[in-house]
Amino acid sequence: MANLDAVQEDAKLDMTPMIDCVFLLMIFFVLVIDLSQTDLEDLILPKAKYVQPDDQPPDVRPIANINQGGDVIYKGNTYYAAAQHGENYEGMKKLLVEWRNTLKLTYKPLKEGQAVSAKNPNIPDDPVLVRADKWTEWHYVGKFMTACSQPYAQFWKLELAMSEIDKEDKMLKAQKAK
Amino acid sequence: MARKSRRQQMKEEVTKEAEIDMTPMIDVVFLLIIFFLCIDFKILESKLPAYLPKDKGSQPEKVEPQEQLRIKIVLDRKGEKSLRPAAKHAYYLVGHKVHYTVGPKKVETLDELKDELKKIHDDPNRRVPDPKKPGSKKVMGVVIEPDTGTVYGDVAPCVDAVKFVGFDDINFGGGLGSETGGKYAKKPRKKKK
How confident is the model at residue A109 (pLDDT cuts 50, 70, 90)? Predict the structure, then answer.
């Protein structure tokens, strides 16, 4: 009888390390998925002094990243490269038309009896988030905004992205400390 | 094999129970380390709403022009380009400086801009007629006009202050011409033969 007890005691599985490993794997994958979001380019945004953080982003919100060189990047793909394309804004047009065709946008409701036409176009009600680097010249952002208001796009709600902290300030302070 | 005495057996059991299993503690410590390492990546971003003209040109009715508050962002010094730490191509501008004008008044800092805007926002004499509700008045719209050479880091904080004060109708004007000239830059008129 005593021997049987001893064997049963040995057969017990300690679940703790397995659960810990599962938790570690879960955390790893959650973080990797979050970091691999190609929507957000590595840009340093200006610091928001007054506005509140964006806690509940809308379900549909295309994000346009504009880097210091004026390039418009969406999900890692450059649609407009300022140095290469110059005055040719076809890339921006392509991106905006792609958003209109592929994203599940909500449109501004038309009045009763009205049908979609050139006079009563489908106007998207979802906002476009513009993320530009702190030092991106404004005219690049202006060009993108102009493209948004063109008849092929008609995105009229824009949001400008800012950050809670100034990452550049932090970098410069760290450099000085060295 | 000699049988263990009852005393010996009890001593062994007591020793066994007194062992501390360090595994969960180490795991928790690792979890905390990972958490604090990764939390830096997740910086919350804010957003500032602004609107582009929506229906202009498609309305059959006449629209009365409305008074809008003009905020100009004027470039004082462009600044010198300097390489950003830990970046290959990105730069920052040393000595970059702008000031703002709210209507005719010049303000130097964002806080001064915010205070000036607050005064205008709270002044009932600066309200404009609301076309949607005839007979009532509303806060006037704002047009932000960034100067040529201004950067996103000048404009976004300005929108931040405007939005914070309580202005909702924010539009943009000016500032689209590049320094070298471009699509929006003024071109010299061709002389007629």
Answer: confident
Residue B176: closest C-alpha in chain A: A139
Compute the nearest-CA separation of B145 from chain A (Å): 10
Window 46-105 of A, Cβ < 8 Å to B: 46-54, 57, 66, 68-69, 87
Distance from CA of A132 to the nearest CA of B (A): 7
Q: What is the DSSP string of A107-142?
A: BPPPPTT---SSSS---B-S-EEEEE-TTSBHHHHH
- The answer to whether A156 contacts B182, with C-beta atoms less than 8 Å apart, is no
Query: pLDDT for A46-104, tens place per residue?
Result: 888 887 776 677 777 888 999 888 999 988 888 999 888 888 899 999 999 988 888 88
| Cα dist from B135 to A59, B77, B90, B128, B129, whole Å | 38, 46, 53, 10, 7
Cβ contacts of A54 on chain B, cutoff 8 Å:
44-47
Contact between residue A168 and residue B82 where contact means Cβ atoms under 8 Å apart: no
List, for residues A112-171, the tens digit of each pLDDT value.
777 666 666 778 888 888 999 999 999 899 899 989 888 888 888 888 888 888 878 777
Residue A88: both structure tokens together: 């040719």
Q: What residues of chain A, 115 to 134, have a C-beta less than 8 Å from chain B?
A: 119-121, 123, 127, 129, 131-134
Q: Of chain B residues 44-63, which have a CB less than 8 A from chain A?
A: 44-55, 58
pLDDT (0 to 100) of residue A31:
72
- Position A51: which residue type? V
Q: Would you give the DSSP letter of residue A53? A: B
Residue A87 neighbours by CB under 8 Å, 6+ apart: B182, B183
Written as one letter, the residue type at A162 is M
Amino acid code (one letter) for B99: H
Tell how strand A63-66 and strand A128-132 pair up: parallel
DSSP classification of residue B39: G
Domain chopping of chain A, boundaries: 2-35, 38-178
Q: What is the pTM of this model?
A: 0.70
Residue B99 has pLDDT above 90, yes or no: yes
Going across the sheet that includes A128-132, the strands are: A77-80, A72-74, A63-66, A128-132, A157-163, B45-51
